[in-house]
Hints:
Elements: H1 11-18, H2 46-59, H3 66-79, E1 87-90, H4 95-107, E2 112-118, H5 124-137, E3 141-145, H6 148-161, H7 168-184, E4 189-191, H8 196-199, H9 213-223, H10 236-246, E5 250-252, H11 262-273, H12 286-300, H13 305-314, H14 320-326, H15 334-347, H16 352-360, H17 373-385
Parallel strand pairs: 1-2, 1-4, 2-3, 4-5
The structure holds zinc ion.
Amino acid sequence: MGKVTPVPVSQDRCCIMALREYQICSNCVMDTSDSLIRFDEDGVCDHCRNYYDNILPNWQYGNNCKAELDKLLLDIREQGEGKQYDCMIGLSGGLDSSYLAYSAVRLWGLRPKFIHVDTHWSMPVASENISKLKDGLGIEVETITVDWGELKDLQIAFFKSQVPYQDIPQDLAIFAASYNYAVKNSIKYILNGGNHSTECIREPVEWGHINDTSLLRDIHQQFGAKPLVNYPLLGFFRKNLYYRYIKGLRIVKALDLISYKKQDAIELLGKEFGWEQYQHKHYENRFTRFYEGYWCYHKFGYDRRRPHYSSLIVTGQITRDTVLEMLKNPPYDEDEAMNDLKHVSSRLWISEDEFMALMRQPNKTWKDYKSDKVIIDFAIKAAKAFGLERRNYR
Ligand SMILES: [Zn+2]
C-alpha cells in the first residue's frame, strides 16, 4: 500500500519528523506524525490501548446506559418544570449536534432552547441543515452573532502566531457564548454533541491544544490590532468552578448514553429532514476546512482525518483498509483548497502572498506563549480520576 505523507512547509518541523522512523498503528491509522505516539510489541498504538482499556469497558457503545439516560432525563425534566426550556443545545448544522437535537425533541421529549453561534464561516450546507431541522422538528433557533471585526483580527493574529490550533478563536467564542447564555438565562443543562462513537481517539495535544483563554489573550496582545470588546470570553475558573458549582451548570454528553452510529445517524436525518452530509467532520465551516485541510496538513504534517477515522475504525464503523485508501488522497481537492485560500485571505484582508509567507515561517506551539496548560493538565487529571474524561489526553 502506498502512503501519502504530507510534506511540512516549515523546515523546523521537517527536522523534528525526520528524527523518528515512520510507523503507523497496526490497528488504527494514527502514525508518527503524532510525535509522542507509542507502540506496543504488536504495533498497536497508545490511543488504541487507551480505548480498549479505559473507554470501551465503561462505554460499551452506549448499549447498557438506559438507566443512566432515564435518570438524566428525569433530572432535566424535573428542574425544568415551570420553565420555558429545560435544557440547551447548540446547533452547528454538523452531524453530532443535529442528531442530538433530533433525539432530544423526538425521542426524549425534552424542551431545549436551541442556539446557533454564528462565526461567519458556516458553509451553506450547515445553514440549510439548521433550517431543515427547524422545519422538521418545529423548533426555534436563536442565533448569537460573534463580532466579525474582532474575530477576524483574532484569526489573523493566530495565523501570525504560527501555532497549529487555528480554531481556538472560533471554538472559544462558541463555548463562551453558549455557556454565558445558559447561565444568564438560568438554564442548568447544556446537552453537548461530544461523543465516544466518533471522537474516542482524540487528536494529540500538539495538533489540537484545548481551548485556552490565556493563550488567546497573549496571541491577541502580541499580534492583534483591535481591542476585544464584544468577543465572548470565559476564563477557565469561571467556567469550571463558578458556572459549575455556584451556578449549577451541567454539561452533558448525552450521545454516549445511546447507541449512536455515524452512518445510521446520517441516513435517519437524511430520510426525516433531507439533512445533508458534507465531506469530512468539521467541514461544515469553511475556515475550519481550510485550516485543518491546508494549514495543519501542509505546514505541520498533521492529517486531522487520522484521529477521526481511527475513532470510527476502533468502534467498528469503517474498516482500516478503506481508510488507508482514502488517506492516499489529500484531505480535500487541491483546486478547492486554492479557492478556499483565496476566500479566506480576502475575507481576512491579507494577500495570498502574505499568507504563503506565513506558511513558510517557523512553526510554534503553546510553549511559545502564555498558556493555561498547567491548569488544564491538572483539570484533565482530576477529570480522569473521576471518570469524567477517559480519552488519551497528551
Ligand atoms: Zn491505534
